[in-house]
Amino acid sequence: MPQAAVDGISLYYERQGAGEPVLLIQGMSGTHLAWGDAFLAGLGENVEIVTYDHRGVGTSTPQDQPFAIAQLADDAAGLLDALEWERAHVVGISMGGMVAQELALRHPQRIRTLTLGCTYPGGAQGQLADPALIQELAGALLSGDRERALRTGFAANLSAAHVADEAHWPPFQAMATALPVAVPVIMLQMQAVMGHDASARLGSIEAPTLVVHGTEDRMLPVANGELIARLIPDARLELLDGVGHMFWWEQPERSAALVRSHVLAQ
Fold it and tell me: Where residue 139 sits, what CATH number does that domain have?
């Protein structure tokens, strides 16, 4: 299994394709499997894609101590070093979008283009999930009932229309159970998310930036995407009407086409 040595830890990664280097950064409780085959295939030819697991996830180095989003951004920069990629197109979603923000701020010379999906800038104007939804998710996660936790997460992360089609449940369940993330690690990730605030610094990002957000996102409401697009100079905002938080899972072909066109236009 490919492992990259990064600042005293090891990060599991996978790479495929050839061409423009694209680093995909997953969100809270997400693994490299959470991108889904349809989205990865939709990115098409002429790109080399790297997906990876954050510290504490999968076969990456276990994690039992708190960390910040900035530390995860430095992990991503270290992975770029290990891959011998001087610069890359960076795609981050949800918590991974926060990591991508910090990567662009802390290591701007490493970024060719930036895509920020269903994410959050922090600050007074940023909006996290409704407290009732957070309580529902936390209760399910801590219940010890894996089926309840997965079903609750499925309903929270995807639009009501998507969830209503029972045919969509088995692929999600298979992905989520193939490489489960330990609850204590998810709690550490949640702490990192709560401490994230790049809002006052986003105006210094110079990389060409695409912001993608579903209008039915309950995890990180669409107002966050609109705010980020205002804060980053010349950022382009794409709103996916009726789509939930995991837009790349719900509409993989459309989402991949947006990312691909952004990457190859530069």
Answer: 3.40.50.1820
pTM: 0.97
Residue 29, pLDDT > 80, answer: yes
**What is the pLDDT at residue 176?**
95
- Taking a C-beta distance cutoff of 8 angstroms, is the pair 71, 49 a contact? no
Query: Regarding beta strands 236-240 and 3-6, do their DSSP bridges make them parallel or antiparallel, or are they unpaired?
Result: unpaired
pLDDT of 266 over the 90 cut: no
Question: Position 114: which residue type?
Answer: L
Tally of domains within the chain: 1
Domain housing 243: 3-264
The DSSP annotation for the chain comes to --EEEETTEEEEEEEEESSEEEEEE--TT--GGGG-HHHHHHT-SSEEEEEE--TTSTTSPP--S---HHHHHHHHHHHHHHHT-SSEEEEEETHHHHHHHHHHHH-GGGEEEEEEES----STT-----HHHHHHHHHHHHTS-HHHHHHHHHHHHS-HHHHHSGGGHHHHHHHHHHSPPPHHHHHHHHHHHHT---TTTGGG--S-EEEEEETT-SSS-THHHHHHHHHSTT-EEEEETT--S-HHHHSHHHHHHHHHHHHHT-
pLDDT of res. 161: 97
In this predicted structure, the answer to whether residue 27 has a pLDDT above a threshold of 90 is: yes
pLDDT digits (tens, 9 = 90+) for 106-154: 999 999 999 999 999 999 999 999 999 999 999 998 898 999 999 999 9
